[in-house]
C-alpha cells in the first residue's frame, strides 16, 4: 500500500510541473577536488536568488565529467541563473567509490567522502552561474576528498 502511495505522489508531482514555460540550457562540466578530477560523484545544482526551476543533477565519470539533467523527469539541462552546488560521493569501508545507485543501508560502513560543507544541501559554499547559452562549467572542491589515491 505504501509503495503505491509513493508512486502516485511522484506521478502527481511530475504532472503538476509539466509545461512550466521555463527555458533550459544544456550544461556539461567537470568536477574536481583540489584540481584533480573526481569520479563517481553526484553533482546537484540548487537554484538560489531569483533563479527559477528545480535545478539539476549529474553524475561524474572517471575523468570528472558530468552532464546535468533537470530534477523533473524529462528535463534536459537547467534554467540559466545562479546555483549553489552540492557534491556527494559515497565510499565503501575499504575506500572504494560506490556505484551511483548504492544505498547506505545496503553498504554497512559506507560514508560520505566529500567533506562538509560541500556535501550539505543547506551548507554548501560551492556556487555556479549557468549562462544564458549553457555550456561547460568547472566546479572545484577546495578540500581533500576521502578515498582518493
Largest sheet, strands/sense/barrel: 5 strands, antiparallel
Which percent range describes the beta-strand content?
A: 25-35%
Strand order of the largest sheet: 6-4-3-7-10
- Low-pLDDT residue spans: 1-17
Task: Give, in order, the helices and strands.
Answer: HEEEEEEEEEEE
Number of strands: 11
Round the Cα radius of gyration to an integer and report it.
Answer: 16 Å
| Average pLDDT level | 85
Helical content band = 10-25%
Helix run count: 1
For the termini, the CA-CA separation is 46 Å
Going by helix content, strand content and strand pairing, the class is: mainly beta
What sort of overall outline do the alpha carbons produce when their principal axes are compared? globular
Structural description of this entry:
Helix content is 10%, strand content 32%. The longest helix has 15 residues, at 2-16. The strands form 3 sheets. Strands 6-4-3-7-10 form a 5-stranded antiparallel sheet, with no helix packed on it. It is mainly beta and 149 residues long. The relative contact order is 0.23. The chain starts with a helix and ends in an 8-residue tail after the last strand.
Topology diagram in text:
Blueprint: H1 2-16, E1 27-33, E2 36-37, E3 42-47, E4 56-59, E5 65-67, E6 69-70, E7 81-88, E8 90-91, E9 111-112, E10 127-130, E11 135-141
Parallel strand pairs: 1-11
Antiparallel strand pairs: 1-2, 1-5, 3-4, 3-7, 4-6, 7-10, 8-9
Amino acid at each position: 500500500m505504501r509503495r503505491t502511495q509513493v508512486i502516485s505522489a511522484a506521478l502527481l508531482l511530475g504532472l503538476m510541473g509539466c509545461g512550466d514555460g521555463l527555458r533550459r540550457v544544456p550544461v556539461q562540466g567537470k568536477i574536481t577536488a583540489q584540481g584533480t578530477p573526481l569520479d563517481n560523484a553526484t553533482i546537484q545544482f540548487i537554484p538560489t536568488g531569483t533563479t527559477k526551476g528545480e535545478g539539476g543533477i549529474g553524475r561524474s565519470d572517471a575523468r570528472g565529467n558530468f552532464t546535468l539533467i533537470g530534477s523533473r523527469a524529462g528535463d534536459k539541462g537547467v534554467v540559466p541563473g545562479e546555483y549553489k552546488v552540492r557534491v556527494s560521493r559515497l565510499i565503501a569501508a575499504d575506500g572504494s567509490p560506490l556505484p551511483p545507485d548504492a544505498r547506505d543501508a545496503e553498504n554497512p560502513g559506507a560514508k560520505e567522502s566529500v567533506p562538509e560543507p560541500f556535501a550539505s544541501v543547506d551548507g554548501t559554499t560551492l556556487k555556479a552561474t549557468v549562462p544564458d547559452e549553457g555550456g561547460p562549467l568547472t566546479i572545484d572542491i577546495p578540500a581533500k576528498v576521502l578515498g582518493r589515491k
